[in-house]
User: Fold SAM-dependent methyltransferase from Actinomadura chibensis.
Amino acid sequence: MTAYGLLVSPSHNRVYAQAAAGLVKAELAVFGERAMDGRVRDIRETAIGGVPYVTFTADELSEQDVRLLSNLSSLYALFRIEDGGLLRPVTLQPLDLFGSDLLTIQKYSGKTNEYFTKLLLNVTAMASGSPMDLVTGRPRVLDPMCGRGTTLNQAMMYGLDAAGIDIDAKDFDAYAAFIKTWLKNNRVKHQAEIAPIRREKAVLGRRLHVTLGASRERYKSGETMEITVVNADSLDAGRFFRPASFDLIVTDAPYGVRHGSRPKGGQPGRRGKPQLSRSPVELLAAAVPEWAALLRPGGAVGISWNTYVGRREDLADILASSGLEVRDSEAYRGFRHRVDQAITRDLITARKP
Assistant:
């Protein structure tokens, strides 16, 4: 067995920085369980030279192992720990195709931490029937409550096709403006257009469609990726995307503090619209069956939520009643962490048989 040490990336968010080591431990455990045949052992926090590391033991890491572990959400550096405590750097091979500013430049109230967004995408991929597709394949990603696109940007960073839905027109406009400006400023070859979605002469919503290449050469050769965002109700997802067209569904549910949702059947509010619900459970009970129909067999869904306004058991029941198999191992129960005084966040994943 060989010992390894993982140096955790510093975070500008003090609260997330305090939770980061514990979250990486859980994420590493999921990677080991789902994609590395249980070969990762003895995961713990260890001080080396007065600096905290996450250490573990494993058989000698293969090139494919390194390719996988290089994408751990808060990984800053990976070392092999040799006799005498010498740290020998392991050359990382992350999937990242673009600069980190794609994920960090947007600043707004309510934004999900980009490290956590990456973690949620990673562990959802690990919950699927083909976990190594994250690095050897090209899973298609949907965020059915995408807000201003943090999940979409992370998928783009990985070189994946991604789609999102959001009911908030301001968020749709903000993301469209951001991604078009970012692509132009970074001289990424692309095409982007916004068009109304019409069915039987009725306008159902708006769609942003972006086709881009990681390089000019890739774009010219047709090796492109696509980002699609629909400004509409997530409960109508099946009207905008084909059944069984996504491998991963990844979303951050409303926390019941600043965000709300309008589940079908909600009581009327002002202007005849349903009142905002502060419970993610009500929203997910209505939405998950719609989302599950969009998953391919073997695909997975990952949802994060505020545990103060929803119990894990309730979300597990919703996923199971939609025909999904909840991942409930000890590794998958290690992600609960505090965000602020009103929010303690956790995540849950499930696979479509």
